[in-house]
Specification:
Elements (H helix, E strand, L loop, with lengths): L7 E3 L2 E3 L35 H20 L12 H8 L8 H38 L7 H14 L16 H12 L5 E8 L5 E4 L5 E2 L5 H13 L8 E3 L20 E3 H10 L3 H10 L3 H10 L19 E2 L1 H12 L6 H12 L16 E8 L3 E9 L5 E9 L6 H19 L3
Antiparallel strand pairs: 1-2, 3-4, 3-11, 5-8, 6-7, 9-10, 10-11
């Protein structure tokens, strides 16, 4: 047995003693090379330079400058500096703005702005003053716009002293008048007052139209117009509460008379009952709320209603309250044309009149589908109905029939129906 030899290392390869037969098969392992990355030289920038280094640099710059001065000058001309650059460089530096000058400039700008505003304000005041002076000065010419505004305000809120018939009368309907005369002749005991006008053409019929007659409940139509005019003027509101007093209670038509005194109703409820069921108690409440009979009579006169007068509270069994067929048509015509009350109040007024319960007079003479807004009146001595009728062919006419009669003469009902029927048939078939 051979003795063991120590381990030998050569080139990172360990060799063990091998038998001679295996030595040729031994292959040496090449050593592994270490890869060292190339070192990059970093230029170190000194954080500071010593006084000696700075001095040597100055000396070097001075030496280079002296060498450059000793060299001969070349013939090449230096490039000319641009004029703009020279002018810019030649200008002296701008002085710094002091806070005093900036404050002066801000004060001056605010003064100019304030003066401009005062000038504009003065011009506006001058224009307004001139406009007011031109409006207040009598005889001065006003613009079309101010005239239109004045007309509209007068129509809505002011009642002119004399109001002509809103629909101008053009020609008398002679053919229809002949037919009506024939009908009237059949009732010798009755004295009718008739006024008819076609809203579209102005054609009319006048039979005793200006004769004063007991108004009965037709007096409630001008009271209704006065109520809505007061609403438009703000003197009364539709939801104002009115208290029924003992002095308001009236017999005859209406159901408010059966309520206890002290019962409250809104103003609109009171006006509606006055027309729809012809409530006399409601009428007395509204007359008092509007200022009384004297105030209303003056108002009626300002509307041009010469024969319409309230002399007694309702029910006025003696017939002292008066009106005329032409007064009633004049009033309804003005309201229909947008006068006396606002358009909103006009619509409410006619809607209330369309709900009238008593349909035994004028409505009996018109065809089915025809719309009528009307108000009846009934006393022992008078039977009446006045209304605005809209036909299916688009025509509209106003008709008032007030009949004087002996004590509750029932034939007056037939006379009013016949007049309504003849008028409806003529205007419904007429092409004009």
């Amino acid at each position: 047995m051979q003795p063991q030899l120590p381990l030998k290392r050569k080139r990172n390869v360990a060799k063990f003693p091998l038998p001679p037969s295996e030595e040729p098969y031994l292959r040496s392992v090449p050593p592994r090379k270490k890869v060292v990355p190339p070192r990059t030289l970093k230029t170190e920038i000194p954080k500071f330079q010593s006084h000696r280094a700075k001095r040597s640099r100055r000396d070097e710059l001075a030496r280079l400058r002296s060498i450059a001065e000793q060299q001969p000058k070349t013939s090449t001309r230096p490039q000319k500096r641009p004029e703009k650059a020279e002018s810019f460089l030649s200008q002296p530096p701008l002085p710094k703005k002091s806070p005093l000058t900036s404050r002066k400039r801000s004060v001056s700008s605010s003064v100019v702005l304030y003066a401009t505003r005062m000038l504009i304000l003065g011009m506006g005041v001058a224009v307004i003053s001139g406009t007011l002076l031109s409006m207040l000065k009598p005889g001065s010419s006003s613009s079309l716009l101010s005239q239109a505004a004045d007309v509209e305000s007068n129509q809505e809120w002011k009642s002119p002293s004399i109001v002509p018939l809103a629909v101008q009368q053009t020609r008398e309907i002679t053919a229809l008048k002949t037919e009506l005369d024939t009908v009237i002749a059949e009732y010798p005991s009755l004295t009718p007052g008739i006024f008819l006008i076609d809203v579209d053409t102005g054609a009319y019929i006048d039979i005793n139209g200006n004769v004063a007659i007991a108004a009965a409940s037709t007096i409630k139509v001008p009271v209704l117009v006065a109520f809505f005019q007061a609403v438009d003027q703000g003197r009364i509101k539709l939801d104002d509460m009115l208290t029924m007093e003992e002095s308001h209670v009236a017999e005859g038509s209406g159901d408010m008379q059966f309520r206890r005194p002290g019962t409250k109703y809104t103003a609109l409820q009171t006006a509606t009952k006055m027309i729809v069921i012809s409530d006399n108690t409601a009428t007395n409440m509204l007359i008092e709320a509007l200022g009384g009979a004297e105030v209303l009579n003056q108002l009626f006169q300002s509307w041009g209603l010469k024969n319409t007068i309230i002399n007694d509270s309702l029910p006025d069994l003696s017939g002292t309250n008066t009106t005329s067929p032409k007064d009633l048509i004049n009033l309804i015509s003005q309201v229909n044309q947008g006068g006396l009350v606002s358009l909103k109040s006009r619509d409410r007024l006619f809607r209330i009149m369309e709900r009238t319960k008593n349909d035994s007079l004028l409505p009996r003479g018109i065809g089915r589908g025809t719309i009528i807004a009307h108000k009846t009146g009934n006393l022992k001595s008078v039977l009446a109905d006045v209304g605005m009728i809209d036909l299916l062919n688009g025509k509209r006419y106003l008709l008032a029939v007030l009949v004087k009669r002996p004590d509750e003469e029932q034939t007056a009902i037939n006379l009013i129906r016949d007049v309504s029927k003849k008028t409806y048939q003529y205007l419904e078939s007429s092409e004009q």
